[in-house]
Design a protein that fits this description.
Length: about 325
């Protein structure tokens, strides 16, 4: 079968022929149609996510395809699925066939747009779980950091769907902030670099966030941390909640503990990878329903498996769209 394979740590995967897997350890065999790229896969392959990966391996955390029953992969139902963490003794979804964690499998409606069903997976689950962790959302002012990224764009829309009183989007790219307004943001904040090339000062950025919100900030969805994440905590209202789901802007900035204590605020950590699968399935079903109804827009781009190395490099640079890999098949 054709698959994307990481041969060496620090190098992007390349498409080549490998042996097809068979069912193992109770996992389900899926004939994959589409798989996505996620930041954690880039970090694992680069050796920046815990222990170095065991190479060679097939990356890919999630995908959409058909369950394989017998010798007719096209006969099974269409499903969305997740794999065990690739590079840790297991292969992932960027292949014609993949082994799925059985409790991750969600059967999809007939005639579903499979590219959309794949694209909304991890990003929709992450955004939905972040807002779940920060409830109540209705009537709250919600600040979304990293609103140029896929998780941030979904979070802006979900906050609006959950009746947030005001949604503020924060990002570096002016065009991306314009897109955030189209998706429902009431106000935007452009992250700027200081004259010496450094980041915004946290205290000054916190003031700009407060000014843009116009009212106390109740909830923060944070895929960035770094200076923006710390500034957002400083800008929280009494009893505010900041949910951190990533560290794209760095993990070295210390949390402003005094501000958290003084405002009786909460800094909540969340990783979808460490969330029980049942909760993830429910979150996915909610966001998929919105997406299929046209109530949730997912900016995405489909790329053939043969071009996976190019897509990998783009993912490492934080593209402003979800990259979906189309798995060409000769089955």
């Amino acid at each position: 079968m054709r698959a994307a394979v990481v041969e060496q740590i620090g190098e992007p995967p390349a498409a080549r022929e490998i042996e097809r897997p068979g069912p193992a350890d109770g996992r389900a065999l899926v004939a994959v149609r589409h798989a996505t790229l996620n930041p954690i896969e880039i970090r694992i392959a680069a050796g920046r996510e815990g222990a170095a990966p065991e190479v060679p391996y097939v990356p890919g955390m999630e995908g959409v395809g058909r369950l394989v029953f017998g010798e007719r992969p096209e006969a099974g139902p269409a499903v969305r699925f997740e794999c065990r963490l690739p590079g840790r003794g297991s292969d992932g979804s960027l292949a014609e066939f993949a082994l799925a964690e059985p409790d991750s499998v969600v059967e999809l409606p007939d005639g579903v747009d499979e590219q959309l069903a794949a694209a909304v997976g991890v990003i929709g689950i992450t955004a939905a779980l972040a807002l779940d962790a920060a409830e109540p959302i209705a009537g709250s002012t919600v600040l979304v950091l990293g609103a140029s990224g896929s998780v941030g764009r979904i979070a802006v829309q979900l906050a609006r769907h959950r009746d947030a009183a005001r949604v503020v989007a924060v990002a570096r790219d002016p065009a991306a902030l314009g897109r955030a307004r189209e998706l429902g943001a009431d106000a935007v904040v452009e992250l700027a670099s200081a004259p010496n090339g450094g980041e915004d000062d946290a205290a000054e950025l916190a003031e700009r966030l407060r000014e843009a919100a116009g009212v106390p900030i109740d909830v923060v969805v944070d895929p960035l941390w770094g200076t923006p994440g710390a500034a957002a905590v400083l800008a929280l209202a009494d009893g505010g909640r900041s949910v951190n789901v990533g560290q794209a802007a760095g993990a070295e900035t210390p949390p402003p503990l005094a501000a958290l204590r003084n405002r009786r605020a909460a800094l909540i950590g969340l990783s979808s990878g460490w969330t029980p699968m049942e909760r993830k399935r429910r979150a996915y079903e909610r966001v998929l329903e919105l997406a299929l109804a046209g109530s949730l827009e997912v900016d995405r781009e489909t790329i053939p498996l043969a071009s996976v190395a190019e897509a990998w490099e783009r993912q490492a640079g934080s593209p402003h769209a979800k990259l979906v890999i189309e798995i060409e098949s000769e089955r």
